[in-house]
Amino acid sequence: MASWTRPRPELRCANDADALRPLLTRPDRGVLVVGSVGVEFPDTREGVQPDLVFVSNERRGIIGDALRGAPDLVIEILSPSTAGRDRTLKLELYERQGVPEYWIVDPDEGLVDVWRFGREPDHERFAETLPVRLGTERFGEIDLQAVFAPDFRRARR
After folding, report:
1. Which pairing describes strands 52-56 and 73-77: parallel, antiparallel, or unpaired?
2. Which burial class, exposed, middle or buried, applies to 141 when counting CB atoms under 10 A from its CB (0-12, 13-18, 19+)?
3. pLDDT for position 2
4. Which end of the chain is more exposed for a tag (fewer CB within 10 A), N or C?
5. pLDDT for the residue numbered 141
6. Which regions of 59-120 does DSSP assign to beta strands (E)?
7. pLDDT band at 103, cuts 50/70/90?
8. Which uninterrupted H or E stretch holds 86?
């Protein structure tokens, strides 16, 4: 039986989804897709499987058996095997394909890097609280100390 020195990737993804769900998953906002969902970019025939994606109601037309086109938000949870690809290839891909916002969650460091692409690209790093916004609309914030706590479920209560 394997012993884990850090939370398994599936648990990390679930923790982030639990923190995001109340902020994003309202009928007037859109859909948060958790787990490895295929995202296809038909114009270039490229595809990826991010950990989490958010699709606003305005972009719901991209949802099918896979997502075909750019979601509003893509979130990748770093693991030793994916960190290099998430920070380089996927970062460049999402910017090029028109994904408005990309988060890289680093559970080992307790940090979230946020890239906003568009006319004025922006990069910010958050360690304590993460403002959740799409475009100019702010939906709330996530307490990263609670998300990265050793026992996330107990910290949320």
Report:
1. antiparallel
2. middle
3. 37
4. N
5. 87
6. 67-68, 73-77, 101-106, 111-116
7. very high
8. helix 83-87
Q: Over the chain, what is the mean pLDDT?
A: 81
Cα 17 → chain centroid: 9
Closest CA relative to residue 34, chosen from 13, 55, 15: 13
Per-residue CA distances from 81 to 77, 84, 87, 107 (Å): 11, 8, 12, 14
- SS3 at position 18: helix
Sort strands 137-143 and 111-116 into parallel, antiparallel or unpaired.
unpaired
Residue 105's closest CA among 46, 155, 153, 152? 152
pTM of the model: 0.82
3-state secondary structure of 40: strand
